[in-house]
From TrEMBL:
Full protein name: Peptidase A2 domain-containing protein
Native source species: Rozella allomycis (strain CSF55)
Superkingdom: Eukaryota
Length: 179
């Protein structure tokens, strides 16, 4: 009896994306109700933090967020620092928590704040420590022509890789991320 076992990772598998995979730069979410103006004003006020201001890093869990607006967006401020050999600024970055997004995204402004200066050619992604230095998360640049170009999205990759739990309290319109 011959065994026709196929290697789970052949060289051909490494050349092709799995069926249904959408590259981060091709993703789009209908976040037309949240943009730079809302992040800098209403959402910053609700979270009691100035968007992209210096942050205390590392910070602790749990972190509380607010359910914002008529579309019930889960908005949370997280202290972030770029993974680098040099000294990197820690920044308060407000994210939409989106369990429907497989990836985590940073807006152009957030990425520049983490780099510490305006950059003409931003990288397509950065590795970022979120709240703690335990594990760096790959954060992709929010696609320029998408409906969320100005928004930071905390996707399922961050939630699972960091071992986070999401607890939502609809009565108080608050939620928390905890370890």
């Amino acid at each position: 009896m011959s065994s026709n076992k196929i290697s789970p990772s052949t060289s051909e598998d490494l050349l092709h994306d799995p069926p249904g995979y959408i590259k981060p730069n091709m993703q789009d979410f209908q976040l037309t109700d949240v943009g730079m103006v809302e992040l800098k004003n209403d959402i910053s006020q609700a979270l009691e933090v100035q968007y992209l201001s210096p942050a205390v890093f590392p910070s602790t869990f749990p972190v509380k967020g607010h359910i914002f607006g008529k579309n019930h967006r889960l908005m949370i401020n997280l202290a972030c620092s770029r993974q680098t050999e040099k000294e990197a600024p820690a920044v308060n970055i407000i994210f939409v928590v989106d369990t429907g997004s497989p990836d985590t995204f940073l807006s152009k402004d957030a990425m520049e704040a983490l780099i510490g200066k305006k950059v003409e050619n931003l990288p397509s992604s950065l590795y970022v420590f979120i709240q703690e230095e335990e594990r760096a998360i790959q954060c992709h640049l929010s696609p320029e022509h998408s409906h969320f170009a100005d928004v930071n999205v905390l996707g399922m990759d961050s939630i699972t890789d960091m071992g986070l739990m999401l607890a939502v309290n609809g009565k108080t319109k608050e939620f928390s991320l905890n370890k």
